[in-house]
Amino acid sequence: MQKQMKSLIIALTCMTMPVMAQKTDLVNPIIGTNGMGHTFPGACAPFGIVQVSPDTDTIPHNINGVYQPRVYEYCAGYQHKDSSIVGFSHTHFSGTGHSDLGDILLMPFTGKLQINPGTADNPDSGYRSRFSHDTEISRPGYYEVLLVDNQIKVQLTATERTGIHKYTYPTDQKKQLILDLNHGIYNYDGKVLWANLRVENDTLVTGYRITNGWSRVNYTYFAISFSQPIIHYGYIDREKVNYPGGFRRFKTAENFPEIGGRKVVSYFEFKEGNTPLEIKVALSAVGTDGAVKNLQAEVSGKSFDTIHQETNEKWENALSIIDAKGSNDQLAMLYTSLYHTMINPSIYMDVDGKYRGIDHNIHQAEGFTNYTVFSVWDTYRALHPLFNIIKRDVSTDLVKSMLTHYNQSVHHLLPVWSHMGNENWCMIGYHSVSVLADAITKGLPINKQEAIKAMVSSSNIPYYDHTDEYKQLGYVPFDKSSTSASITLENAYEDWTIYHTALLLGDKQIANTYKKRALSYQNVFKPSLGFACPRYKDGSWKENIDLLSTHGQGFIEGNAWNYSFYVPQAPSDLIRLMGGNHCFIKKLDSLFTMHLPDKFFSKTEDVTREGLLGTYVHGNEPSHHIPYLYSWTTEPWKAQYWIREIMNRMYRNNIDGLCGNDDCGQMSAWYIFSAMGFYPVCPGTDQYVIGAPYLSYMKVNLENGKAFTIRADKVNDKNRYIKSVTLNGKPYKKAYITHQDIMNGGELVFQMASSPNKKRLFTEDEKAYSLKN
Amino acid sequence: MQKQMKSLIIALTCMTMPVMAQKTDLVNPIIGTNGMGHTFPGACAPFGIVQVSPDTDTIPHNINGVYQPRVYEYCAGYQHKDSSIVGFSHTHFSGTGHSDLGDILLMPFTGKLQINPGTADNPDSGYRSRFSHDTEISRPGYYEVLLVDNQIKVQLTATERTGIHKYTYPTDQKKQLILDLNHGIYNYDGKVLWANLRVENDTLVTGYRITNGWSRVNYTYFAISFSQPIIHYGYIDREKVNYPGGFRRFKTAENFPEIGGRKVVSYFEFKEGNTPLEIKVALSAVGTDGAVKNLQAEVSGKSFDTIHQETNEKWENALSIIDAKGSNDQLAMLYTSLYHTMINPSIYMDVDGKYRGIDHNIHQAEGFTNYTVFSVWDTYRALHPLFNIIKRDVSTDLVKSMLTHYNQSVHHLLPVWSHMGNENWCMIGYHSVSVLADAITKGLPINKQEAIKAMVSSSNIPYYDHTDEYKQLGYVPFDKSSTSASITLENAYEDWTIYHTALLLGDKQIANTYKKRALSYQNVFKPSLGFACPRYKDGSWKENIDLLSTHGQGFIEGNAWNYSFYVPQAPSDLIRLMGGNHCFIKKLDSLFTMHLPDKFFSKTEDVTREGLLGTYVHGNEPSHHIPYLYSWTTEPWKAQYWIREIMNRMYRNNIDGLCGNDDCGQMSAWYIFSAMGFYPVCPGTDQYVIGAPYLSYMKVNLENGKAFTIRADKVNDKNRYIKSVTLNGKPYKKAYITHQDIMNGGELVFQMASSPNKKRLFTEDEKAYSLKN
């Protein structure tokens, strides 16, 4: 919290902001920047495509003589443990489990020109610099650090499409700058397909690069304006292209205004003096003209401090959707989670509405804002449902962006894992249908007929994840896919969302087809085992399944224990399959309490040891709804116990505070819902299943002007159990509240106690939705 | 001529065209397809961006174990001497001395799939096929050949933006097709930066590729429609990309509708049967959406035969600008020359006006058609002046395209050698200023103020070809450039065009500045030598200059003999510098008659042995005006002799019929002017210097509805000398005619004789323009 206070004081003294506690002061972006969180500490505006942030060690590392990119560790370009900064690039994923981006790196320096980044072991070997975390300030929309080697103070802020740098050099040194178009995250040799650079005049540089990273082909155009004139510049191309045109005739290495190549690193010089150098870097996926437009529209004529203040206000407004009371650490965790939900997806459109589609063509957005970075397998669970409460305009645009993706897709498929005009095909299922279903259920103004058409199409791509066999057999056979059971379980839920949407739209034919498909989970539930189990094409079950292993058992990012609970559309039927209420409770209890040998943990991706409770894996998403399943049993109070355990153990206000990848806000959205005391177990229904409140007071200031307040005056780690509930002053008996309850505004009050109220049980009618056979 | 007759008969019988001799029947596109001509035999529409043509051997060849592209020999993708065809690609330069393009190659086949092209030595090793010239038909807008290996008849035609293929397979064979996105002309390993392919449905495929060839980065998007449904398809990527996204999860090799990579070769299968397969391939530089628009607008719903007929009519109209009488060979040469002038520059714009600029951004053309492929160093001499007579609308758009290039250029420079949104910096000078000057002098409707601004800017780029030193010293010093004398001489002429334009526009300040610069040729004329000679920065001359060598003597694509005559703006002053009339004639005589040892010829680029007369080098451009310089002397009849010699020796109706690169129509435009009997020695003036007519009758059917006729009833190789001239029936005494004389319509009649009329001499007033000191 010392850091927090420091940044708060600086904000108050430097920026002459009103002297009152602000939400932005509570956010600690450094949470999750070490280890598995994969968050970044840099500056961005809410949902901005630019995240300007320090990259610490993204160059390939030598494995047995072969240089390999650090694919996983540097998903966000930054690991807190590192001691040198390579530079400040403009695009970063927030909390993903795959890496890419790191586009358009700037690095200020003085003295001798070095055109390579150097290594972490020997920072002096390149343009990188040592730094100390003591000099780091990380706030929403603001980052600051002192580069120790050259004693350059770096300040960063951002608008939606522009990163703004303010570099304070030692006054007696010529100001110098690296612009490395070869730098990137997941930067294998050859990632940059082409880079281009134009020095338009002495204060404007434009260019672009095309990369083949995780996105197969990514177009990043830029426009960079400088507050002081360039007095000298040059570049090197580390890999001479075969035919560079007539450039041989020029001394292009210095002061030649246009260059192109595969590995272009350029440098710029500015006069010495005590005025800091301010640099504005606007991005576009359309063209350098688009980048210039973005630059002009967003930051032209504005100082660093003005932009910083405006972006701070954007964040303050965005974070003010929720008021809360709690300890400093609790509020830091809550508002940092809220902050992390508003980074990805990101606006992928120029100020004039032009954007690059999944067909790589340039389109004009009509009546919506186009977004990219859809980590849907993660985010359909809680992030999109959260947006349907707190960010309904954004959520509408997200759905429209998904429908646009569908319309431009040669597969006629909604996004699976897409970013920057590419489908990355990461993870399984067609979970965008859940996002659309939830949007329709919760009344977003989207074209319902277009939506159901896209949902039906996306669930019928024969070559995608063995959908053909899934439709034919009722399950994906293990002969065909090593993750067949996971796919079957997830498809079944997704098919339920289509069924439910068809019901809402009155389309019985689609409803009938998809109701049947929604029951497919039954086809991979092995009664004799009491668990989900992969099955071969001939109907036989995989023998000797290892229930704890996450590898080779028919599942992905989870084991049979985790995935067997993945029937969010029909918990009551799942309880039946697992042997009834008693057996089900036993099994849930075991899940949270069993001993998981380290050998299995070491094979569980994406999570820290702290991300485990028994074999409940919170660092990966398939389990996220599981604690809430107690609400369908006779022991709902156990949910109240475990949810608080998860929140206390797996979300902490420090660099290692996330127990697994934040996954573009899904981990954070889970936290926010769970803090409020309810969770969307089955997106597509209008129900939020009650767990237990985490804080004594939370208020959601809805965009419709109403407010929904959650009170739990005496809640604490001891008083974690619900004694009783009232909604708007009336006793509330159900296991869930509805979307309308929230949107109407009102007050949900929990009486808490240190021991469970074992009489607070739910009739079938009081339980949340469960599909019947 | 046998081939001509055959094609004529086919045209008449198959296409039910009206039975009358047509201009298109006279064109023999095979002229120049062997050796140095660098023309291609395939099909294109006038000024179309698509030239669909067979490529014969453009794969790299092994030089000491290193595979190198055949940069020079395969500029047009085709050498007549070759015996196998690799396939049919859609973009080709016409007659250049540098290679690139060869985009989007199709090759039909039957039987076993082979995904590599194979080698010329062993055609069976790949998808290429043997062929015989006996089965080849090459006409404007039409090409036909039988692929011997698979007995597939190939017919090609084209619109401006679309190549159309008609493949007749053996009826019992499954129709198969290679689409090789890795093929190209100048196809070094790594030329393709990225390729993308989408099978939109069973009759439409779209995609693009980005290449780094001669143009540093070239974007070629395409849309391909098939007349029959694809029943099976697949691809291989010869170089797996490092991270292909989740494509690992799919069997993408077959029937997967979207692929991307660096070396993508795809194949398609269609049912067997006796209906030929018709394929339409539309190109765009904007996007696949642009390509689809082009496809729909130009060829949708039209059969191969219909399109062929329409394109034939376009050529017939285009070629009908000139009527002529002559021998079959003479007419073949004339109309093939006219045909060759209407290929490059090419339309570089989608049907909706969108195009890719030199800044690589997408622009909307307002009120003009955007063109590309500007080989300006060649074409400013005669091609653009010819267009100013016969294709004024096109010429206006060419100038507007050049001005657009200037406006988008980071250098603020008009095109030097540009194609497909790139500046290739090939050759020297800033010759677009001549094109603009000629356009203004000849009254094209362009913005004169914008033009002079672009001209002044282009002639003041300090880092371009040592313009800074040229301005300072009055010449480019040999210390700085190995071609310094050539640059100085050419800059001086270009500066004259700016001077002359400024005079026309009444801008005395610019005129004064550029008049001085226009005399810079004097600074590299060494009086004691009697020749132009490179000079060092300190004013001293290069010693021991080798007047015959084209290398290392301060010149480019020419020697001191050639370049010393390069003062088109001031022939009278050149005569003075060379010692007066008598000495000048002697020097000209020597030029045409001297013995040039083979050692020099072997170092003379771009020309065949037949392209030399003495050391007059017609295969390269710097000499093109030289024979006309006799008109400033007391022996103008010698021009009449040598011009006919050049035409007879260096333009022949056969595969080797061009003595050097056609250079995008410059060689052909020289021929057309010279055949009419006059030539624009100094573009920018309104004067055409009279040489001698080649044919007994030529008539230019001007776009303004008037006609300009040239008659020389008795002209032949013997009667090559002018006895007298009348214009519109009145005796004509001048050494030149004016642009207005032509545009007014009228009749220029030459009385010819077998011996010179040595009394036909010109007073100073009757001679064409010559800048005075």
From TrEMBL, chains A, B:
SUPFAM superfamilies linked to this entry: Six-hairpin glycosidases
InterPro entries, A to Z: 6-hairpin_glycosidase_sf, GH-type_carb-bd, GH92_a_mannosidase_put, GH92_N, Glyco_hydro_92, PNGase
Domain Glycosyl hydrolase family: 291-753
Chain ranges of the Glycosyl hydrolase family 92 N-terminal domain: 26-284
Cellular-component GO terms for this entry: cytosol
Record has Signal as a keyword: yes
Highest taxon of the lineage: Bacteria
UniProt-listed GO biological process terms: carbohydrate metabolic process; glycoprotein catabolic process
Any Pfam family the entry gives: Glyco_hydro_92N
GO molecular function: carbohydrate binding; peptide-N4-(N-acetyl-beta-glucosaminyl)asparagine amidase activity
Signal peptide: 1-21
Annotated keywords: Calcium, Signal
Names of required cofactors: Ca(2+)
Assembly information from the UniProt record: Monomer.
Protein name, UniProt field: Alpha-1,2-mannosidase
Native species: Parabacteroides goldsteinii dnLKV18
